[in-house]
Amino acid sequence: MATLGLGLFLGGSVVAIPVVTGVAEGVQHQKKQNEEAANETRMIKFNLDVACENKSVKGAEDVDGGIVVLRHGKVWIVPADPETRTPISPQGHESLSPPLHPFSGFYIQYPDEDRCPPERGLVSTISDDPPMLNWIYCNSNTYALCYGNRTASISHIVGEWDWTDDESALTLDGFEGFVAVDEGEDEAGERDGLRWAVYFDRDDDGLGKGSRVGGKRMLEVELLRRVHSEEEQKRQLEEADKKMQVKTQGDLKSHFSAPARERQMR
């Protein structure tokens, strides 16, 4: 009887360990989500500047010191005015309408109750008038960074987005695997002169040693966060209290309150 009792006890323990561990992880994740929901700094908007460590390679001069912009559903790099840090339109496309829109975004939990645990998403304005927000995501097939509403993004890689330990640079899935890909001149006219698209080297293999992008020229880049001015941050924090509140409930579902025009991100 003693042996049988010990066997049942051990069997119960083996079964219980993953259950208890799962509950503990769930509680810990809930705590993390609650802390992040109250962390207003996550909702401070920032732009993305571009740095290319290897400045001697061909094409580096096109992206190093540039800025990230959103257009045609994708994420691009263009030169930036050194004083204003605003995008410079490609040559021959100086009168673009609407003008190039720089990434201007912040972190927020992605609203998908089927993702467990929930993932921290990244949104950006895609226009100033109307003030629309879209999700930034990595296309699960091409690994190109794109933007779109919830319907467009939900089947792709939507997180987890974060920043480096010093909060200076953007990360996805825990590392800075961003690559600028030269999409070529042939179709640049149809893309308003845009050439350098941003991809994420998710498998850390040089985008399949270039096979994912048809052997196109690639440059490793760093996407640097440039937070808005203190005055702008203060205004954003005040707005966050009024209209952009993240409410984390027991089911880990995040609700994002925003004006009707900004809800198009969903």
Automatic annotation (TrEMBL):
Residues 1-16 form the signal peptide. Keywords: Signal. Residues 228-266 are annotated as: Disordered. This is Uncharacterized protein. The lineage of its organism: Eukaryota, Fungi, Dikarya, Ascomycota, Pezizomycotina.
